[in-house]
Amino acid sequence: MHRFSEALSYATILHAKQTRKGSDLPYVSHLLSVASLAMEYGANEDETIAALLHDAAEDQGGKPTLNVIRRKFGAVVAEIVDGCTDAYAEAGAKKPQWKKRKVQYIAHLYAASKSVRLVSAADKLHNARAILADYREHKEKVFKRFKKSKDETLWYYRRLASTYKELLPGQLADELQRTVTTLEKSATSKNDLHAKNKKMSVYRNLDAAFDRELAKRTVATVHRRK
């Protein structure tokens, strides 16, 4: 437990000034929840520590922070954290645009380790549960917290859920699927045909972008093996 305690202390310091979207809740609450979910679904010590640190490099310092994690907690933990990071912003630079980042992140899961998939799925499950709980209280205002539209946000979680059902079959993926399905149903008006058509158009556009990215990666993998 010494390594876990050290990781929790490090994560608390790194994220000390960070809160959850749309609340005053300290960000470490999310990290503890993800670590707890990962443990519930079978995480070992390295995977649990990576769950505590899964946002450290992305949100707090980029690759230099990842190097510190590698030195403090080992290469295995660092590789999982790296696999859970959707982009590294260079100092003073913006991250790549949302669509490119999210499509690439989901596509990379097809080549990711089981450990990366486990920690990532635990992270997405906690996020989806939090969005659903907040939607029940605040309705459409919830989606104003995000950089993209409601339909784009819902697509992201729907595609993640489908991907984990394929790549990480089991109770964790099933629970994510149930949570996302409930969120979609809650946030979609049954009687607003225009809104439903708009949502489907967004889904088709993003699905096509994802399919192109996955096909590109598949071709690249085949070429590397030759």
Topology:
Blueprint: H1 2-14, H2 28-40, H3 45-52, H4 56-59, H5 63-73, H6 75-83, H7 98-108, H8 114-138, H9 150-167, H10 171-187, H11 193-225
Helix pairs in contact: 1-3, 2-3, 2-8, 3-6, 3-8, 5-6, 6-8, 7-11, 8-9, 8-10, 9-10, 9-11
Summed up:
With 226 residues, this protein is an all-alpha fold. It contains eleven helices and no strands. The chain has two domains: 1-94, Orthogonal Bundle (Hypothetical protein af1432), CATH 1.10.3210; 96-226.
Essential attributes:
about 70% helix; about 230 residues; Hypothetical protein af1432; mainly alpha; 11 helices; 2 domains
Would you mind describing this structure in some detail?
By secondary structure, the protein is mainly alpha-helical. It folds into two domains: 1-94, Hypothetical protein af1432, CATH 1.10.3210.10; 96-226. Helix content is 72%, strand content 0%. The protein has helices at 2-14, 28-40, 45-52, 56-59, 63-73, 75-83, 98-108, 114-138, 150-167, 171-187, 193-225. α8 runs parallel beside α10. It is globular and about 55 Å long. It starts with a helix and ends with a helix. The mean pLDDT is 93.
